[in-house]
# Entry
Amino acid sequence: MLLRYFGLQAAGTTVRTEVIAGMTTFLTMAYILFVNPSILSAAGMPATSVFVATCLVASLATLIMGVFANYPVACAPGMGLNAYFAFAVVQGMGYHWQAALGAVFISGCLFLLLTLVGLRGALIAAIPASIRTGITAGIGLFLGIIALKSSGIVVANPATLVGLGDLHQPQVLLAVLGFLVIVALDVMKVRGAILIGILLVTVLSFFVGGNAFHGVVSLPPSIAPTFFKLDIAGALSSGIWHVVLVFFLVELFDATGTLMGVAQRAGLVPRTPTGPGRDVPTDRRMRRALFADSAAIIAGAVLGTSSTTAYVESAAGVQAGGRTGLTALVVAVLFLVALFFAPLASAVPSYATAPALLYVACLMLRDIGELPWHDATETVPGILTVLAMPFTYSIANGIAFGFISYAALKLLTGRARSVAPAVWVIAAIFLLRYGYLGAG
# Structure
């Protein structure tokens, strides 16, 4: 039955290979089970409920991806947007987390609509590559400063804005150790390097970090505190449409880019060129995959977590031989099993997840090398996008600076015709936001 439904023979794979690939993917992304509750709890959300929501939406979204699209791609709440949700939208702008979930839901509906009408690939092709690169690298820096702050390595300083923390504190030393272990294990291609680093620091924290042990296995906690607690009306009345736009744009680039990248690596996607560097997916399985990750955002908001997206760690499973949705099905089952490890998740301190954030930040910064350094009208907007995110503590401001400067520089240098209409529209929206609403 599995052979026939997932087309294992046609894909040149076996049940054993797909199961191993699924386990590999799960190990490489299981860190989100600890990191996501840690981040969203900073927004006032109950960590145990977020843990359950994370497990459920990851399982559901990955199941849809595997069964409906037959893709070896796993989904879970995305890194970067969860930090933006907690630290920028809730802590920085002062919105309550229920309204922020409402904004995620609205962005998911827009995302799904764009996917259903077939404009998703066309829109992402219209956005300049330099801004897409800047967004990825900028989110990396944003995660980096959050990680350094959470670990105690960087602290506030009224004279210089930031300063070096107390390196004699055990929490700081454990965070440094965790980071080095994660990097070393990843370099040695050890599966689950990030997860191992988090668990190592957590275990050591019981002995030298003042942490308390609450057990490992239990029945899943209640999801009631976050389930269906999204406030759509509050999101609309609060006027946080610019937050919706940020969620939408990052979801667009992150999810679509990941899906296309992993699918290409697995040799699954035929593509039709629509211009220089502007390919759009034409395969039916890819269109179904795009639908699956769009629907996952809506499901995540309902369950009680920030935007859900396809995970680039799925490439590890593809590397292990995964070629069909059976790989994703295995990942989905493992996320359900993880529901029973809530006590372990609640015992993970923020300085244990900070090294994972910092390493993800380092990986995301690699994209900055793709900027076209020979053309300042492309490079400068990308760099402004990167710099504005950590220094204004807002992904929204980074994206705004990028689009506005891109449109302005192209206009001033006589290259306005090379700018896609979507760029002018987005730049105008952000200009109106600053003109009438302030920075926010």
